[in-house]
Amino acid sequence: MLSYDTPVSVNGQTSSPSGSISASHQSVPSTQTSVRLPTPNLSNGSVSNSVAVSNGSQEMGHHIWLVTGPAGCGKSTVAKYLSNALQLPYIEGDEYHPQANIDKMSAGIPLTDADRWDWLTALREAAIHELDRGNDGVVLTCSALKRKYRDVIRVAPYFTPNLYLHFIYLDAPEELLLQRVLARKNHYMGANMVHSQFEVLERPRADETDVITIDVSRPVEEVMADALKRVRQVMDGIKADSQESAA
Ligand SMILES: Nc1ncnc2c1ncn2[C@@H]1O[C@H](COP(=O)(O)OP(=O)(O)OP(=O)(O)O)[C@@H](O)[C@H]1O
Ligand SMILES: O=C(O)[C@H](O)[C@@H](O)[C@H](O)[C@H](O)CO
């Protein structure tokens, strides 16, 4: 039976319980293993159900750039920068938490899976809404700590044609993020919560080919420049692919 614990396949691959990668040959949702999304066709930081189209901005499709990682890794910092640089709307994931979640985190109580499901779905819908309003893309922040949380967002291209979904995972050791959260003022997420984030964190694995990983233990200017460079590389790859299929 399908559940939130069942990994969604990425680029037609699904990870086995042991962590090795196996190709999925299913074309319809299985009753036992993974959901196969429609023809995800890219690697290196993107997944899409897009059919290449030949003109205008349509050629490049629409893009969701999801900046992820544990508390204090720099999601808001990097996402705001990308949003400005790319001239795309920005959605702050923290603003979509229900008050009950904020109250819990403010009290130093980690969220559970059950606390997060509706929040994840709301974020996915908010991102799609920005695209429906005519934007070519959107940048949003979301901790997306576990694989199954990322899979909730991965459903987006299932419903929206010509959509590319990209995760930007900001990676740093726990001790460093603890320092950054300790130094930060006026935020409900206290330093006492950082360890709990790492306890549940599932770093993206090799089969999650829609993830760009950025080392954020570097100075912030370097991190932002690297993130923008990687995003542009992915966009260039998509452009080259669509021009090739149009030729
Ligand atoms: N590369 C960096 N080097 C040093 N400090 C950084 C870096 N990136 C972000 N910071 C600082 O670390 C703190 C946390 O950053 P930010 O608020 O962007 O993280 P976040 O992931 O959005 O946090 P949260 O999930 O808790 O909202 C901020 O004070 C920010 O200025
Ligand atoms: O999944 C979670 O536990 C939450 O999203 C947290 O990560 C916070 O919202 C965020 O990091 C703010 O500090």
From TrEMBL:
One record GO biological process: carbohydrate metabolic process
Q: Quote the PANTHER family the UniProt record gives.
A: GLUCONOKINASE-RELATED (PTHR43442:SF3)
State which Enzyme Commission number(s) the record gives.
2.7.1.12
Instruction: State the GO CC annotations.
Output: cytoplasm
InterPro entries recorded: P-loop_NTPase (IPR027417), Therm_gnt_kin (IPR006001)
Report the family membership: Belongs to the gluconokinase GntK/GntV family.
As its record notes, the protein acts as a catalyst of: D-gluconate + ATP = 6-phospho-D-gluconate + ADP + H(+)
Output this protein's name: Gluconokinase
Is Cell membrane there in the keyword field?
no
In which pathway is this protein known to take part? Carbohydrate acid metabolism; D-gluconate degradation
Extract one GO molecular function annotation from the record. Answer: ATP binding
Identify one Pfam family in the record. Answer: AAA_18
Compositionally biased tracts (Low complexity): 43-53
Q: Could you list this entry's UniProt keywords, alphabetically sorted.
A: ATP-binding, Kinase, Nucleotide-binding, Transferase
Biased composition of type Polar residues is found at 1-42
Task: Please give the Gene3D superfamilies that the UniProt record associates with this protein.
Answer: P-loop containing nucleotide triphosphate hydrolases
* Keyword set includes Nucleotide-binding: yes
